[in-house]
Here is the input.
Amino acid sequence: MTSKPDDWQSMHDGRLSAMIEVAQAAGRHTLKYFGATGLVVDAKKDDSPVTVADREAEQLVRKLLGERFPDDTLQGEEFAEKTGTSAYRWVVDPIDGTKSFVCGVPLYSTLLAVECDGEVIGGAIFIPALDEIIVAGVGQGSWHRKTSNAQWTQATVSSKTDLSTAVFVTSEVGSFAKRGNPNAYARLERDAWVTRSWGDGYGYLLVATGRADLMVDPICNAWDVAAIMPVIQEAGGRFTDWKGNSTVRGGDGVGTNGHLHAAVLERLSD
Here is the structure.
């Protein structure tokens, strides 16, 4: 039986509630730098951008979770993994969509997931600049809130069964060619009704709330999608890698309403 996030305080010793609180705290911290003039953008080894906002937000996550759950492992995008002794592991992407962030586009997100014994049990996608959030706990449903002052409503994927009527979103078209599969993008763009680059965590939020029908990541890390899997699945959809495996560590990702999943995977195959 599902329950609203307000009733998650005791689950996993408070970790699901902490997941929501910490994701929002970290995301709101990024607003200090969002749209700021003179923001310094550094390039990481893979040429992806990073800013002080990314680093400070992740440091805040590590501080808040370390105080409450000192024995848990924590994996993040910007700093080395902190190894714990408990069965729990946190996975954080402080700013998913840094390119959007540095361009002043309000569709970047803060992602936070919690795993137990290697299985993701909860995820949060927070869109700080919109004050919009979607969260999920395994077995508890996926819950959406348009603003922090709104009520939680249960999220549900779309019911579309025909790709020709579907909205396809992705983060960056060039990433398909970067991984050597430009034709995969071309096939999906050809066969979908609408294609847009409302990607990163926001794209998956759109799928989970039924506003889009499929989101594809050609290249991703665990911190990009760990929070995504429970949000999509608890909303009635499906999340896998491009081979159809239910994993957040496959190096790529596909989130759909479930009905379209096989058709999408077919178009992603060489």
Observations:
- The chain has nine helices and 14 strands.
- The chain has a mean pLDDT of 96.
